[in-house]
Amino acid sequence: MIATIDRTLSRVPMYRLMSIALGVILVAAIISSLAGALFYSPLSLILSAVVAVLSTALTSRLFALIFRSRVHGESSIITGLIIFFLMLPSVEVGGLLVIALVGFFAGASKYVLAWRGRHLFNPAAIGAFIVSLTGLGAAGWWVATLPLLPFVVLGGAAILWRTRTLIVPLVFIGTTYLLVITPLLSFGADAFATAIVSYPILFLGMFMLTEPLTLPPRRWQQVVVALVVAVLFALPLYLGSYLSTSLSFGNFYLSQEFALVIGNLVAAAIALPAGARLRLIGSREVGPGSLEFAFESDRPLRRRAGQYAELHVPHRRADARGERRHLTVVSAPESSGRDITVAVRMPERRSSFKSALAELKQGDDVRLTWLGGDFLLPKDEKTPVLLVAGGIGITPFVGQFAEAAAGGRDVTLVYRASSSDDLLYRDELAAARAPVVVVTRDEPTDLPFGWSWQPDLAAAFASLASVGSRTALLSGTPTFVARATGALRAAGVKRIHTDRFSGY
């Protein structure tokens, strides 16, 4: 079941999935309006949505020209739709102009309020916040209504499953509900229902707080941001009348978008985007249909083995997957403070990103916009480790395997490939001089010293002594991860950390 969901969602590019989820909520809103379940008329919904999307898209295109950058059309649509759900729908010229103004500030913020290739604020939130400061209008967050609740939950769940960012909304939603419900208890037993229906907690937590471009790279950092936003979200309920008399300044007041904007600032303060300019110094084939790209950074990079890099490779006619991609760093951190190496599969039908990456020449520049991740070896070096890789999923383990073996850690690698010819980084793995169990259909005849072969994962895990006491790190496609997780559980392994290569 899990593998089926993973396969289905991984076929949909992330931007496209977000657009679909928001589009479904839009259609549900129009249908609810026609049925009389929403206060707003169908015409006001349609006009407001068109204005929000067009204003954001046109502004993004304008500032892309000014900053000599490329605009991602689907990203503009997503921002426009979020703005539509924040600002009160209207058929009046004044109301539509306010929505257009929010779209303008949102689109501009992606280029003006940016650092090393990444915008610092959620565009819809900062756009609504800036407009509120002008006194011309304020966000109504009308998406928080009972008829739209099921569609928000289902769409948000699909996005969280695809992005693997469940911990962030869980912390935010759980903390916010607790803080919001407490002051509402004095109004009776309906406090929980009121909090769910009347506050945009789910929408903000699932669709906005989880925006990858404004989240810090480590899980503990993301939890801190979620807690900050939750407290600021609920703070007006505790301040009551004190808020309007003592904490207001001009047109400023605490709001949901303000809470998210401050959360974005905290994220930047904790871990400013680790952007850098990367210059290609070489590329090579590391296996059938797999290419490695070695880059040199224009500044020292701090990273750990197993972390990922987000590369921005501008190119014409980018497809729905966009110009950015998360790629695991292959090279060990101690190899050089400026060197960074990634490897990718190159199928016959490639995404536009992979095609652009393959066409890079030595000396060409790309941008590193993010560096981080929590797919790391256990901190306690006495913890025995089992690394389980499937295909291209070997990439995070090349550096980790070498690091663990060099440090004297008890480490074993189980490597599943379709054939011995598809075993990537054989020389690098053999140099670690640690046990490797190869899982292929046919038994290889030329395995390095200390390596062994097994026909399937179950047999591989059964061949390991005290396998149940090990902490397993598991990397590969969603299908492989699901299958290997089941085999690990059957072998008695309890501590399993996964890294899925979804859609890449």
Automatic annotation (TrEMBL):
| Superkingdom of source | Bacteria
Q: Which PROSITE patterns match?
A: FAD_FR
Q: Which residues cross the membrane?
A: 20-40, 46-67, 79-106, 126-154, 166-185, 191-210, 222-240, 252-274
Molecular function (GO) terms for this protein are:
oxidoreductase activity
Cofactors = FAD
Please report a single Pfam family linked to this protein.
NAD_binding_1
- Where is each FAD-binding FR-type domain found? 273-378
Q: Which CDD domains match?
A: FNR_like
Keywords carried by this UniProt record? Membrane, Transmembrane, Transmembrane helix
Matching entries from InterPro entries are given as: FAD-bd_FR_type (IPR017927), FNR_nucleotide-bd (IPR039261), MRET (IPR050415), OxRdtase_FAD/NAD-bd (IPR001433), Riboflavin_synthase-like_b-brl (IPR017938)
What this protein is called in its record is Oxidoreductase
* Organism, as annotated: Naasia lichenicola
